[in-house]
Amino acid sequence: MSRILVPVDFSAQSIQAVRFALAYAKNKHELTLLHAIPPFPSRNVVRKLGQQSVEDFQLDEAKEDLKKFLTIVEEAGVPYELEIEFGEPHEVISKHATNGEYAAIVMGTHGYGRITGFLLQSVSYPTIHDAQLPVFLIAEETDADSFPWQKVLITVDGSEQAKNAAQKAIALSEGIPGVSYLLLSVVTPPVAYAGVYGVGWEDTATLENWGKETVRTCEEVLEAAQIPYESKVVIGDPATAIRQTAEEENVGLIVLGHHGLGGIAGTLLGSVTFKTIHRTKTPLLIVKS
C-alpha cells in the first residue's frame, strides 16, 4: 500500500487538504501528515533562551495545534503517521517527497496570484517546482462533499507534459467508480499572443481546428486505455477558460502538466499553472514530467 504525503500547517486550507486526502486514500493508501516548524524568527530570543528550549516550546505548541487534524484522521479510520520536523517548509516537504514511498502530495493552497504568492513566500509554488511527485492543491472554498472527484478536466496544450499529466490522472483515478474525463484545449488567438500558432489564422474555425489537432495526442492516450471521454476546444485566455469550464461542467479535478518553471520565471513568463491556481476553487492536480 502506497502513501500520500500531506503537508499541514494550521490553516483552513490544510484542513480541507486533509479531508480531500482522506476521501482519496480510503481503502487504498496510507497518509503521512507532515508538519514543518520554520526557524524561530527572533535570533535574540534564541540566544537568550537557547536553541533547545525554543525548539521544545515550538514542538509542544505544534503538537497541541495539530490535535484537530489527528481527530479528523482518526475518525475517518485511515492509517496514518505524523512527522514533525524543523526547517523551511518547502525544503522539508521536498526532502520527504524524494524517498520513493509516496504516490502524490496533497496540500492546501491560499490561491495567491503569482506576484503575491512570491512575495508572501507561498509554500505550494516552490513545492510544485522542486518535487517530482504529482501535487494536489486544495483551496479552502472547495466543497468537501465532492471529494475525491467524479469528473476530471485534463488541460491539453500539445506538450509532452500534458500527455504525461493525462496518463498520471488516469492512474491516480484508478479505483474511483464512475469517473469521466473531459479534455480541454484552449487556443489563444494570435492577435493576442503573436507567433505561437504560426501563420494561417483566418477565422474562428481555423483556431478550433488547431485546438482539435492539439487535443488529439491526449485523445489517443484515453483511447488506448479504452476510457470514454469528451473533448472541448475554447478560444481565449487559458487560465480563465480553464476555471470557467470547470465550473460550467461541474468538474471535480483539474489536471495540468507543469513545465517546471521556478517562481520568478513562472511569474515573468505568465505560467498557466500559476494563473490557474489563483482563485480556483476546484482541486488541482499538477504533474511535472
UniProtKB/TrEMBL annotation:
Name this protein carries in UniProt: UspA domain-containing protein
Entries under Pfam families matching the protein: Usp
Lineage: Bacteria, Bacillati, Bacillota, Bacilli, Bacillales
Annotated UspA domain residues: 2-138, 149-288
The organism's place on the tree of life at top rank: Bacteria
Family listed: Belongs to the universal stress protein A family.
Organism: Brevibacillus parabrevis
